[in-house]
Amino acid sequence: MDPAGARTATPARGAGRHGLGARLGQRRHRPLRPRDRGVEGLSAAQRPRRAALRAAHRAQERPRVDLRHRHRLDGALRPRDRDLHRVPHADAGHLHPRDRVRRRRQRLDGQLELPGAPRREPLGFGDPARTRHVTAKGHTGRLDATIAVLAVVAFVSAAPVAAQSGEEPELSPAARLGAALFSERNVTNPGLDYGSSCGECHVDGSRSADRADRAFADSVPLSLLPGKQTTLRNTPTLVEAASWRWQGSGGDGGWRGNWDGSAESLEELLVAKLSGAMAGWGEGDAERARALSAIQVTLASEAPAEGAPYAERFQQAFGIDVAEATPEQAGQAAAKALAAYLETLTSSHTSRWDAFAEQNRLRTGPNEGQSAQDYSFFLESRIGNQEGRRLVKRPEGFDEQAYEGFKIFFRTLPDQLDPEAGVGQCVRCHTPPDFRDGRFRNVGIAELEYDALWGAGAADRLDPATVRRGRPTRDDAAAIDLGRLHVAQGEPGAHGAFKTPALRGLAGTGPYMHNGAYATLEDAVRAKILAAQRARAGQLAHADPIVAEIQLDDADVAPLAAFLRQLDDVGAERFRYYLIHFDE
What we know:
Layout: H1 22-26, H2 47-59, H3 97-108, H4 140-158, H5 161-165, H6 173-182, H7 198-201, E1 203-204, E2 215-217, E3 224-225, E4 229-230, H8 266-274, H9 285-301, H10 310-318, H11 327-342, H12 352-359, H13 372-388, E5 394-395, H14 400-410, E6 440-441, H15 445-454, E7 498-499, H16 521-536, H17 545-548, H18 557-564, H19 572-580, E8 582-583
Antiparallel strand pairs: 1-2, 3-4, 5-8, 6-7
């Protein structure tokens, strides 16, 4: 080769650095392009740039590639040079160009880990806590199966051993004591016709043959209390109740109990339940003292149906002698034990929705600092991209109707391609992964209940200073349940506001809403549609602004209800099945 870098001899046919054969021979007198020269063929001005590029690549510990690596994003590479920057595997040169682009996207999203490459956090696709990093081997058709299997292996390895075997998880002494107290009837007022327990209203379906579908909730609109009274509101589920935290502009990050947030700590709430109307006791300090004294006698002298006496269990769990303690101390210890048990009632996040998110590499909740609406934009973009390439996977049972409901649930703006598609706005209040937002909101249910008796807009005409907390009836026009307004007068947004419930496990918690007025999920969705119509008509003056932005009709009811049923946990074993068995 002469100093100018020009060829001086005609190569044999078929020879040439790039296998160009005769065409290269036809250009034998043309100088080589800079990218085709070795270092010795570069000019003095080009060599420092080449050395700097190589040093930068070594410093970043990138896979060893040729100089074309620096052009990987400018679209100048030929298809055969785009395959993951020359990943060394058997079939790298035999992939369809479409598959090469797909692999490259997976590499940039952190879903593939190349040999010798540093681990990278995903840029957005996939749950950061669950994203799988695998090495590409073979054809990309086998890659999807590999990812699915690794997802199952990772879930199995992360799940508690007790949950995998079907056994109950190991509980602490305090939680075991709380579980016994949860079903104890003798802590209620002994002067009544019959005793009650926490488990009478918060039914554990796994221990009830006739109500096996219950998820620590009742199956009637209002629960029956000792003394033949009923509750004012529907019994909520206790699953994840202990983990609730008050969020939003008015929240302090603390725990609040009841639909209206009237209890400021879990133990305070439990003492009130044990010594109040829920256990058949009256109101006032004297009645509370009487209740706690009776509870102390029961705990000091009796035993549960199975196991050691309560006195021995309290000594083991808290080091307290309930016989020598004051009634107040005994009541606080009982509440502490119940709280320890309630903290174990958590969702396993093993629903079809979780399997769907895992299969499609969707984050199961917003990133830190990301709004629910921005999270919904991400999901819409991600799913829209996968739909265009026919890559959406759905676990068995997650049918087309549920899939349509999924899109309605997460849609917060009209679909430009389908203006008639429903806009549910649901994700803005019921935000994954727990499908709640830790806030109190007025969604119009209290007003709808009152207006059903007194006419549309009647609730808005009430003077809050004259209303009485109670169930609306035709006999008392002042009776209405306005939620947080009754416990936080003057708080912005308190009028008619109730705690946003979590949506996981809905099948075992109906009837729905704080008043239990809606027997089915379809009825509950129709109530939200009616509230949205009333809000846009100016007949729900105190409703949250999001309510008026809900754009749904009757055609959206069935799909949305079908999706909500995908939020029920199915258990670790069934979840593993859904991760592998799906319909594309």
